[in-house]
Design brief:
It is built from six helices and no strands. By secondary structure, it is mostly helical.
């Protein structure tokens, strides 16, 4: 039950980062805490995914039959942590690309 509820939210969080809607994983965590009453003891969906292991989360998303976010796949493939400089640079590219067109 937890996978069916949590994994789609994590996947959408990665899509928000990928599309430049959010700039940091912690932004998603805060939004879900206050806006959707995500259980605080889980630390937010992105924190929860980190604790579960991103490779493990990716495998479980695929097992559920969901299409994983390209950013999640790239993060796992390159071995990035959500707080790594390389991950931050990748997300910054999406952010600047999306909002520089306004």
């Amino acid at each position: 039950i937890v996978d069916a509820l949590y994994l789609p939210v994590v996947n959408e969080g990665f899509k928000c980062l990928e599309e430049g809607i959010a700039i940091r994983p912690s932004d998603i965590d805060v939004c879900l805490h206050f806006g959707y009453n995500w259980p605080r003891y889980r630390g937010g969906p992105m924190q929860w995914a980190t604790a579960e292991g991103l490779a493990n989360v990716l495998a479980r998303i695929e097992k559920l039959g969901l299409k994983p976010s390209e950013l999640l796949k790239e993060t796992v493939q390159k071995g990035w942590a959500l707080n790594s400089k390389d991950f931050e640079k990748r997300v910054a590219q999406a952010w600047s690309g999306r909002w520089s067109k306004l």
